[in-house]
Amino acid sequence: AAGVIQSPRHLIKEKRETATLKCYPIPRHDTVYWYQQGPGQDPQFLISFYEKMQSDKGSIPDRFSAQQFSDYHSELNMSSLELGDSALYFCASSVGLAGPASSSYNEQFFGPGTRLTVL
Amino acid sequence: AQTVTQSQPEMSVQEAETVTLSCTYDTSESNYYLFWYKQPPSRQMILVIRQEAYKQQNATENRFSVNFQKAAKSFSLKISDSQLGDTAMYFCAFDMRFGAGTRLTVKP
Asked: Which of B103, B101, B93 lies closest to B3 in space, CA to CA?
């Protein structure tokens, strides 16, 4: 079965550079979520999109932006990178919203993650 | 604010024995879903089990079961007949929020 695809899998950047992470959801999934997991940390929710509109916002820094495109893939744009941005970035997808706003259960399927290292 | 708390940073269990991982949460919602995720060394996030708060019956998935106490806002995970492959970080999650995780080691 098709899974969530994230690219690149590994990325190395210098401080103050920019990075773009891509997420391709499972076919027919219309919702995408972004998470950041620092070393030894739990995943922190950044932002989510449902039907190409932002649906929820978590602890996403102002230096980061994201969008969901017409084909439902999503990109996380990160500017002015800092050492503290080094982390594993997960994307997850679901059919419909997963959370209190949803009226039914919509499981999130996680991608393999992109490991970002900022030097 | 909605929070998820896992108070056991590390646990270990002998192979074939049973272990219980604890999780508490806080919410003002009346219906919601709770999840346990497993994150092995590969760091892939894998859904282990889910529970709908509306349902009284505890969820069970093969060797994994939960003890859901809605009034106490408690959601513990029981792993029976532990296997070496169960060694991983386990995260309790509610909405898009994760607990700090419990590192479980299954010893041969």
From this structure: B93
